[in-house]
Structures are given as C-alpha cells and as structure tokens.
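Please describe our next protein:
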Amino acid sequence: MRQLSADDLSRLRAQAGPPCISLYQPTHRHHPENRQDPIRYRNLRSEMEKSLRQSYSSRDVRDLLKKHESLQDDAEFWNHRTDGLAILSSPDSFELFDLQRPVREFLMVAPSFYTKPLLRILQSADRYQVLCLTRDSVTLYEGNRDVLDPIDLGDVSVELSEALAAEDRTLPRPSVRSAPGGSTVHYNPAQKSEQTQNDMEKFFRAVDRVVLERYSKPGSMPLLLAALAEHHSPFRNVSHNPMLLSDGIRVNPETLDVEELRKLAWQKMEPLYLERLAAHIDRFYEARANGFASDAIDEAAFAAISGRIGLLLVEADRQVPGYIDEVTGRVVAGDPSDPHTGDVLNDLAEIVSRMGGEVVVVPAGRMPSSTGIAATYRF
C-alpha cells in the first residue's frame, strides 16, 4: 500500500495541468465481492472517455487513457485491492492511492483535481502506523480501527544502505522482499561478520532515520513499535522520532498475522484516540461557553474564510450538498440528487486546512453537535 500524505495533496494541487481526471471507486479485499470491481472500473473509464471526447482530440484522449486502460484487465491488480481506490491523472501525471476506507464512486474531468475524499481520509483521527522490527528486518504498516495494511517500502533499502554506510561502510546492503501491498527490508550482517549488539544498534539507528524522514514526518501519525521486549530499549535509545509512542507491542512480529497485529495495535491506540477526541471536544465546549466556537455551518463558513478557525471537528460520512463561496463565505445549497454536487463540509474542511487550522474527522456518535461540525475559533 502506498502511504497518503498531506504533501501528496499539496503536490497534486500545485503541479497538475488540465485536463485533471479524478476517479474514486469503492473496492473489495476478498472474493467474490471483488469480482465486481474491474467491471465498475470499466464503466467509469467509459464515462471518462465520453467526457474527454467532448473537449479533446482523439489522439489526446488516447494518450490520456493509456495507463487507465492498462489496469482494466490486470487480474493481479484487482486481486489485491483495499477498501477504496483513487486515481488522479493528467497529461503529465498518474497517481494511484489505495484507501483504507470506502469512497463514493465518483468521476470528474476538470481544470484541477478533486481531492476532498483524500483530505477526509487524512483528517481521520484514528490513523496510526506500526513499525515491526527484528534485529535484522523491518516492515511498516498503516491502519485505523478497522484495518491494517503493509506499506510498500519500495526503494527504502537504498536509503537504508546509505544510512548504514554513514554508520559503518563495511556493513552489507539490506534487501527488500515484496508481498502483496507491501514489503519487508532484510539486513544480514552475518554475511560478512558475526552478529553483534553494536551491529544491531547501527541497524536500528539507520531504520529510525529512514522511517522518520520517509514516513513519520510526511504522515504525522502515531508510531507503535512491535518488537521483542529486549529490542524496545535499544531502539528507543537511538530513536529521534517524535511520533514514536512510549508504549508498544512486546512480541516477535514475525509470529503474528496482520489481523492479530491490528487487534494488538488497536488495543494500544484506542485509549489514546479517545483521549485525543475528548480533549478536542472539551476545548470546543469551553470555547463556546466564552463565545469563541460555533456549530452553525453558515457562521463557521464565514469564520473559515477569515482564517479564524483553529480547530474544526467534522462528522465522518456526513454530507451537506452544496458549496462555500470563498469570496463571501456564503453557503450555497446544492441538489442532493446530482452525483457531482459538492459537499459544504468538505469545502469547510479544505478551507480551514489551507488556512493552517487543524481538522479532525470524528465518528457520528462522538460529535459534540448535531450539525456535522464543531468549530473552535482562534480569535
């Protein structure tokens, strides 16, 4: 699985030129449900072609559709899906993201990408990562309360080799073993010399450096360490990762399947998740009592374009058809029967995020309001 980060959204918004094609599709992890996924994708691709032909030449359309068409009959691709799929493409880019939550089927061809479903996923409060570590291997996972998936480490072995070289240029290069949706980096210093405590600490220090730069900084998610009890202290002693949680999973991660690992991880994460939500909600109540918060959407929209919102809680899966006029802050109602109608709550979240405020997606049962939002003001 490819990690989705705020940097991805910023890059997509800044770099793409028209036509920008945004495709979202719910997918399935298991048979027989996943049999419908390539069929739904073909239908979306056909809709995409019709839309493009209205404005572009046959040659341009053919070039734009080339990578999309290559996925249609790729059985390996469709047999290893998660809960949702996002493909954002333009003449110069083709970005594919596996999503850990279902998304509404959606296709748009426009001057810019439609990124609101990705923004909503990034803002979910229950996201975390798990670093599975042994003295000679590392695997990274990303999850939420419901699922846990391996992250594709790709060329991490090269960066890890460079980090190890900075420690000791005599140490051998790690190798990557791929698995569906992810990969494990293996390191075997015994190939050249006897395994020593010093070698292990060098490996741990290199892992910490690469995970921090490549995954923790872009993702800003809590990081759980899953390792044998005797490996926790040596790793924490060399770690500089501020996202690394003080508690972890003390077990050999190689003895667990993914579902067992997810259950153990969520046992650790749930209390922290609930504590964080409670703190946000208390902050909202206190601010509202002093006139510095609101759950009225029209008031929050006006405050958002003024940069006044410091914290916005948004109800998960709630939609308010329409859009926000970013010049006036006025909320314009939309037709709920139109599949391309915008979502006021997503507009609000995007504006607050762009203005430097914090946005947190909250389950319906834990929202402190009935409107779908709770906005705490900076001033």
